[in-house]
């Protein structure tokens, strides 16, 4: 393109560089080519077949424990269905936080910018996802699983206050953690077919969100000084800690007919689950390290959440 035809907004400026605009344009094209309507894609009508798991059993918080050995196959399936519904419900909680952060970030920005249009497309995706997860949890026979009062209130503050790289890096962590699990579940024939469809839809659409979150995290950090980077790194690690530790609600055990205290104790000590989380999150941790967001205090929270 001749330089005389380049509009001021196409050059690097507050709305982002040309490269970032092009990246957003590609995401919009990809979304136009491949997006799903869960209302018609997912089999909502066939009644739940309790011969299926809700997630790959290896992802259960109790898999590999003594308690797991003592459970019948039917109990294991009920537990993974409740755990899967809990993960989906935590997903809804975070998607509502995410939608508000992105909407705030785009407030009064240039609507002709592909980044603006992509951000609104992502919000529309998340809106469909949350409805899909809600219907999925209901079909799995689960109640409303929500994080505890303290975490709910922290989330309320976070969605109102988080900006820039802290918002986008936290979005990335939540999306990546969900992604690694769902990639396994969508291929697993032991998992209920409608859950596999839900996971497949989510994996496809989230891969674009994760690209955008990575781009935005890098772009926002480009001019960040050391103090800001340190503060934001800690905020992201705290958000990650509360998201990951809220994924499986303690009520899932009682709802699967188990003794909550024993299940919690064995889940907390479950080395299999911890190492699965660590190995699944290695790519994410490499990315955070490359952005220099793995500061020493942040690292402590990732370790506590068994992400590294
Ligand atoms: Fe989503
Ligand atoms: Fe997303």
Describe this structure in words.
By secondary structure, this protein is mostly helical. The chain has one domain: Orthogonal Bundle (Ribonucleotide Reductase, subunit A). Helices cover 69% and strands 0% of the residues. It has 14 helices and no strands. The protein is globular and about 55 Å long. The N and C termini lie far apart (46 Å). The N terminus is likely disordered. The site of one fe (ii) ion has 4 residues, from helix 8.
Supply the key terms:
single chain, mainly alpha, Ribonucleotide Reductase, subunit A, 69% helix, globular, disordered N terminus, binds fe (ii) ion
Q: What's the CATH H-level superfamily name?
A: Ribonucleotide Reductase, subunit A
Strand content: under 5%
The helix/strand class is: mainly alpha
Oligomer: single chain
Task: Specify the number of helices.
Answer: 14
Low-confidence stretches: 1-15
Any guess at the CATH architecture? Orthogonal Bundle
Residue-averaged pLDDT: 93
Characterize the biggest β-sheet: none
Tally of DSSP β-strands: 0
**Helix fraction by DSSP (H/I, runs of at least 4):** 55-70%
**SSE run:** HHHHHHHHHHHHHH
